[in-house]
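To close the section, here is one more complete example, presented without commentary so you can practise reading it yourself. The ligand is S-adenosyl-L-homocysteine.
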Amino acid sequence: MKNIIDALAKTGFLSLDDFKAIIHCGNAQDTEYLFSKSREQAQKYYGNKIFVRGLIEFTNYCKNDCLYCGIRASNKNANRYRLSAEEILNCCDNGYSLGFRTFVLQGGEDMHYTDDDYVSIIGEIKSRYPDCAVTMSIGERSRSSYERYFEAGADRYLLRHETADCDHYKRLHPDKMSFENRMRCIKDLKDIGYQTGVGFMVGSPYQTEESIYKDLQFIKEIQPHMVGIGPFIPHKDTPFADFKAGSCDLTLKLLAIIRLIKPNVLLPATTALGTIDPRGREKGILAGANVVMPNLSPVMHRKDYSLYDNKICTGEEAAECRFCLSRRVESIGYEIVTDRGDCAAAPQS
Ligand code: SAH
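Output:
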């Protein structure tokens, strides 16, 4: 196993057989060796610094009907809300004073906001906080819309590809949504000049080892700046309510492999990982992650942005997220920094 891990660390390549060997390996020492190699790479680019992103979940209205997602359009039990521009800016004000230098505007695909609305919100955030990065995560749009947000000052865009396997994509989404369009969006985003994030759920229904391997190949090919992965967690009001959640162990191994495939990538230890394991985010960092994304949304709406069941940090104590995370990160020898947290320059090859 050590040979396989050493070869991966050295070349950034992994055959399907070697990939399977790593994910089936139950030996704790070998797994720790994998994590030590990925930490080494993360530390080479980012030291012991962990970047934070202030996540503003500004709307849970969505026109899509992704089979896994709790805010899908046909979930009549979702308690819908949307924030006004002023409420979004209040979240940023609060976030800025807490030391956040990246704001992530994430939401369902809510057609209530026009491109003019986004352009004006992005412009206002950038003029109040020129030292901050703005990340958009509002799903599939036209190329011209992406261009407008970029010109308004948006720096980054997160659009998980969800799966690089077209047949798998069809089993996770209704017929109306298309794999081709999602790929088109990701290519447009990169082309326009966004720092682009892709990603997928670990253990989503019908996922196979082969489809995960395709996700890794896709990452290698696209060379995104960020990769967001977290376990699939069922939501009770979706068609996937009775499927099993993805595993923490597999998510950790994939974080490590992704770090070794693309050593300078921005890699969050996600809230979903913290939801299936109380120390999931700490374990994620020890497996090579270097970003955390605490919630900056108004506490009163947090429980309504429910993509999956039992999401952490939605109670009244949630206002403390920033400090709680600092303590958690320090407990494992890392440090949260006040920084835009851009992607480090790519390794020379
Ligand atoms: N509407 C935006 C933002 C999506 S929500 C977009 O389309 O990009 C962010 C991510 O949450 C999704 O990309 C998906 O990978 C993840 N997610 C949704 N439902 C989930 C679930 N049940 N378990 C785990 N992750 C989920």
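Once you have examined the tokens, check your reading against these statements. The mean pLDDT is 96. The chain has 14 helices and nine strands.
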